[in-house]
Amino acid sequence: MSERERIAILLDLRTLKASGFKADQFLEAEKLLENAYVMFGKRALQHEQEKQALEASQRAESQATTSSKAAATKDELESGFEYDDAMFDDSDDDANNSGVADLDQTSALAVEFKTVFKTWKKLKVNWKEYFPDCSFPDDMGHLDLVSDLMRLPMGRLYKQLIKSDPLRLAYGWLPLMALCSRGQLGTLLAESFCERVLSQGNLVMTDGNTLLSHEELEMVVTLRMNREFMHYMRQHYNHLSKQDFARTVVRV
Questions:
Q1: Given CB 3.0 to 4.6 Å as the disulfide criterion, which of 21, 160, 213, 224 pairs with 26?
Q2: 3-state SS string over the chain?
Q3: Partners of 240 in the beta sheet?
Q4: Which residues lie within the region annotated Disordered (predicted)?
Q5: What sign has the CA pseudo-torsion 88, 89, 92, 97?
Q6: Is 28 left (phi over 0), alpha (psi -120 to 50) or beta?
Q7: Residue 82 pairs with which residues in a beta bridge?
Q8: How many other CB atoms are there within 10 angstroms of residue 116's CB atom?
């Protein structure tokens, strides 16, 4: 399982408490999420600062008068030398201060993550409240991850969590990370997956299968690509797969 997938499992409120991780695996995934949280938080805060600076600049320009100001002249030093910016260059101090500020921000975000992730793990979702238009079984205490929760449009839930916590005191950046980060839900597949699909298509389209129609070829490739998933479904959800003989049987 990739790092991105482990991060996504902890961000997904459907799989957070049903991850199947052992204790050490969960701690490892939590550490990955913490690192991603710190990086995401730093970039998000930088974006907010740049946005605020731009808005302030635009307000200042709109309020500025049309009168031109005389160019400021540099005063000479008492010693007779002209003012030289290089003599008072504090770029090194700025760099040092920036490094200290970066360390402080990293530490603050790491501490913040530990606090908000505790709240995140304790969050109990009222699925009927957030998804009133979806059907659920009468026994809400035993929802099935595949048949009951997989089909839900989770973006609706995370957007409401963001709206209910504007200061990010409860959940921090976690709901937003579920929508647009390395571990976001529903992320686009990598190009490598598409390449594997094409490779499977080449294996399926042998000299003896050249008469397959486009639809039939897609069906065979889909079955081959999902072979491991079908094995998993037969083992854990055989009542849903409806494959009594552990294989696909065409009933006429």
A1: 21
A2: CCHHHHHHHHHCCCCHHHCCCCHHHHHHHHHHHHHHHHHHHHHHHHHHHHHHHHHHHHHHHHHCCCCCCCCCCCCECCCCCECCHHHHCCHHHHHHHHHHHHHHHHHHHHHHHHHHHHHHHHCCCCHHHHCCCCCCCCCHHHCCHHHHHCCCCHHHHHHHHHHHCCCCCCCCCHHHHHHCCCCCCCCCCCHHHHHHHHHHHHHHCCHHHCCCCHHHHHHHHHHHHCHHHHHHHHHHCHHHHCCCCCCCCCCC
A3: none
A4: 51-74
A5: positive
A6: alpha
A7: 76
A8: 20
pLDDT in tens, 146-184: 888 988 999 999 999 999 999 999 999 999 999 998 888
The pairs formed by 221-228 with CB atoms below 8 angstroms and a separation of 24 or more are 221/197, 223/248, 224/200, 225/196, 225/197, 225/200
Structure tokens at 220: 């065979």
Digit-coded pLDDT (tens) for 9-41: 999 999 998 888 999 999 999 999 999 999 999
Q: How far is CA 31 from the centre of its chain?
A: 15
pLDDT tens-place string over residues 107-154: 999 999 999 999 999 999 999 999 999 888 888 888 888 888 988 999
Question: Would you say 223 and 250 are in contact if contact means Cβ atoms under 8 Å apart?
Answer: no
Tokens 């003989």, located at residue: 245
Given a contact cutoff of 8 angstroms between Cβ atoms, the answer to whether 13 and 125 are in contact is yes
- Supply 44's token pair: 């998000």
